[in-house]
Amino acid sequence: MDTNVEQDKVKSVRYVAAALILREDTVLICQRRPDQPMALKWEFPGGKIEPGETPEQALARELNEELGIHAQIGPFVVHILHTYRNGGAVDLQFFAVHSFEDELVNHIFNDMRWVHFKDLPGYDFLAADRGLIRDLAGGKLL
To answer: Is residue 142 part of a domain?
Structure first.
């Protein structure tokens, strides 16, 4: 295969670490702002893995930037590869977060909520998260 095509594919993949921040039988979900791509969709907090970072380091940094917390990144939960209709792709790594320091402060989201696993399917999540939502709601993970 053409090397340039392979490089284009690699460039179009966004590598992301995301958190399942857990509190008793609930998980924190966050809603994108109206001015962001995929506006008002729900997602789990986290973000892009920068060059030289491990997924855990990226997630700790992102949670501090987005929510003002110093999280203890827990065990790896699931890996999801998803290609959107526009051709962009995301490589998501989810980690459990059972504890963090400082109070949650919403720095970038439209809304944040603690939601019971069984209620997750009632929210309009990003397409990449939908399989995870079904598994969480069905008690298949965690």
So the answer is: no
Is 44 a domain residue? yes
* CA–CA distance, 86 with 63 (Å, rounded to integer): 28
Which residues have C-beta within 8 Å of that of residue 54, sequence separation ≥ 6? none
CA pair distance 127, 142, nearest whole angstrom: 21
pLDDT score at 12: 83
As for how many domains the chain has, the answer is: 1
In terms of residue numbers, what domain contains 59? 3-137
Question: CA–CA separation, 48 vs 73, rounded Å?
Answer: 16
| 74-102 confidence digits (pLDDT tens) | 999 999 999 988 888 999 999 999 999 99
Quote the CA–CA distance of 46 and 56 in Å, as a whole number.
10
CATH code assigned at 21: 3.90.79.10
Q: Return the number of other C-beta atoms located less than 10 Å from residue 118's C-beta.
A: 12
